[in-house]
Amino acid sequence: MSETRSLRVALLGAGTVGAQVARLLLEHHDELAARAGVPIDLVGIAVRDVTATRSVNLPAELLTTDAETLIQGADIVVELMGGIEPAKSYILAAIGSGADVVTGNKALLAEHGAEIFAAAAQVGAEVYYEAAVAAAIPIIRPLRDSLAGDHVERILAIVNGSTNYILDRMDRFGDSMEDAQRVALELGYLEADPTLDVEGFDAAQKAAILAGLAFHTSVPAAAVHREGISAITLADVESAREAGFVIKLLAIAERITDEDGLEGVSARVHPALVRRDHPLATVYGGNNAVFVEAEAAGPLMFYGAGAGGVQTASAVLGDIVSIARRHIAGGVGVGESVAADLAVLPIGAAQTRYRISLDVEDRPGVLAELAGILADRGVSVETLRQTANGAVTADGLATEADGGTATLVIGTHTARDAALAAAVEALSASGAVASVRSVLRIEGA
Amino acid sequence: MSETRSLRVALLGAGTVGAQVARLLLEHHDELAARAGVPIDLVGIAVRDVTATRSVNLPAELLTTDAETLIQGADIVVELMGGIEPAKSYILAAIGSGADVVTGNKALLAEHGAEIFAAAAQVGAEVYYEAAVAAAIPIIRPLRDSLAGDHVERILAIVNGSTNYILDRMDRFGDSMEDAQRVALELGYLEADPTLDVEGFDAAQKAAILAGLAFHTSVPAAAVHREGISAITLADVESAREAGFVIKLLAIAERITDEDGLEGVSARVHPALVRRDHPLATVYGGNNAVFVEAEAAGPLMFYGAGAGGVQTASAVLGDIVSIARRHIAGGVGVGESVAADLAVLPIGAAQTRYRISLDVEDRPGVLAELAGILADRGVSVETLRQTANGAVTADGLATEADGGTATLVIGTHTARDAALAAAVEALSASGAVASVRSVLRIEGA
């Protein structure tokens, strides 16, 4: 089945990433041909407007608005348009016409991945998507191939550079959430509509993809529990730092067993306290990192740029060359393994630890009452720190009582999230508690 | 070309890694079959002595001393014996009989990789070797596939856990080199004969493999410049720390251009000063990390355990499942890309920076003389720090002259290694220089 003719690549989209892919395919044509063993020819670029101004000067004769026709003649269709439609229809058309597909479309894969992979498997086509998670960082191939014989136990990942940049500014420069978001917007780390990033939607799509790969299960993005960072305050960040933590927005995928003994997957995105000596704590700025714990391999971390046109283009090019080599080798696509087909369990089944900060009445009996509330829900206390509220004295200690309230910081042992959440609800309903200052999960400890 | 029968795996060697591979293949048989799409059956384990006691209890009926016969009936031959012979002959026999090969044998690949890959390419067999570099850390596949469309510019890697453990103990616990080696030996980080690790032979083999992959060139281990860590003293480590560095044994592969404009590969192993804020500085204990700088992807880092039976077995299992999937898909092996076929350039052509500590005469004119020596060889000075030798005063400054000598620490700008080495030689021959305390390269800045 060896073929020596050239491979025809159709590119859909010429935005930040697409334009760089086109440039690299053209500039490095001969070198890529030597590496792949076959010339890889860019035969056309489908765009909405052929006259638009672009970051990269692309040959006018390659531009077309007729994506359907372009797809029909292609061996490899590279979809970098983003969005659900028409990207999905184009990808299915490409698969239907016998082409292999490269895409960086995380939203599409998180929502319709199962359908697309099934269509590809039926005809033996490949769908590669290294660019969909963590830009240039190789993580899809390591999970799909390198760890194919291992048992992944847990993934803790920083996969949204915008929110990492914001939280890092708050931690390292003392910015408020508002200021950090403003700077992130000015520097291009954040879109004009920051919701997708700040509220964790983007990270949840990536969590779905990582969880599916790691646990050989189809995990839709809608099944991912999602909390964003908008409620995080500078006071939270500073309190975390004093206790030896940094706050990161984590995409988490874990193999867990629920209370009834059902084995399943927990996939969730939320801000979390990470110990300063954890490898993820050193992921600064807009960078991404995927920390994987596997039964045999132990802890692994993959680190690098989480965004950027040319960085993401690197991942796309790697997929194109890999597919080209498969064409030389012959054979059909292998398809995604969903052999385990585990249940996706609700957030309540996850096992985690909470750090709870409360304003409480500073009188005898309060501690016993609150400890009782926790114990009743099966939550045991690991650390407890009470500080009287009031003016700070010259030696830095807060000793002057302020209307008889104190701040109580409770670090719990590991428990089900449902029990921890119920305990927080009961605490906040207690007459002894004036207010709940913050509740954050501790991960990676 | 789809096949649905089972795949027969022959395992050569049942040492620390081999025994774990056997255990995982047997214990996870059904799960691996589901993931690969075909049952993967361990049909035999070739060992020297079937009666030997092993770390894992292996079924006696699988053990054999007849490797040749075992190989003949296998679809996949997994070579974990180590050493050059008979491992090489067995691998060539396996390829000759139509089997694919998985090996973790870095010494063999570094010395005879080109011959083995050529034999495999001729018959369309696969040779996978993720376990040969950095144990469980996926690095072969990311370099070969994920970065296949990018230009790798430089790899800085900590690939020898033993020496990293020793240097880390010196840095974090203030051990002498002798004490650190003793502890490493006691804890099993170091072999009874530490030469392979301490003198950089092991790292040089891995540097050869990484350089070959990254630059699509065949790089023999003998072409790798190699310096070990045995000359590193606690004083070096402490002096480095004061200046904001940590000393690491690095395996380096770089694409460089020599003075005549010849493009080539620099592959070298030596201790180097790494800035404390570089990601490699946080690689503690026996861990490994591979830091890759690519033109499009930017900086990437791959981090994890660098040794261990079960950790390394994870990489081997990943290779076995990948090969099994290829059997399902059909097609032939792609072979290694040596399309670039660059020259391997000598250490003198490398561009680096030196940090040179000298004991010098403390008299007028010395600085001018030494600066002249450097300038004559085209080496320019970036930082200079002179401290009078003598007792330290109460405020921590060394001010009392000690026989009129001073310590001079020179940090250079980037220059060819040949020029830097010549400058050091000329400095040490100067009458103004009492002794050369240490010379270390600065990397990753």
UniProtKB/TrEMBL annotation, chains A, B:
The keyword NAD does not apply. Residues 355-441 form the ACT domain. It catalyses: L-homoserine + NAD(+) = L-aspartate 4-semialdehyde + NADH + H(+); L-homoserine + NADP(+) = L-aspartate 4-semialdehyde + NADPH + H(+). The active site is at K206. Pathway: Amino-acid biosynthesis; L-methionine biosynthesis via de novo pathway; L-homoserine from L-aspartate: step 3/3; Amino-acid biosynthesis; L-threonine biosynthesis; L-threonine from L-aspartate: step 3/5. NADPH binds at K106. L-homoserine binds at E191. Its EC number is 1.1.1.3. Coiled coil: none annotated. Keywords: Amino-acid biosynthesis, Methionine biosynthesis, NADP, Oxidoreductase, Sodium, Threonine biosynthesis. GO terms for molecular function: homoserine dehydrogenase activity; NADP binding. GO terms for biological process: methionine biosynthetic process; threonine biosynthetic process. Its cofactor is a metal cation. InterPro entries: ACT-like_dom_sf, ACT_dom, Asp/hSer_DH_NAD-bd, HDH, HDH_cat, NAD(P)-bd_dom_sf. NADP(+) binds at L12, G13, A14, G15, T16, V17, G18, A19. Catalyzes the conversion of L-aspartate-beta-semialdehyde (L-Asa) to L-homoserine (L-Hse), the third step in the biosynthesis of threonine and methionine from aspartate. Belongs to the homoserine dehydrogenase family. NCBIfam families: PRK06349.1 (NF004976). This is Homoserine dehydrogenase. It comes from Labedella gwakjiensis.
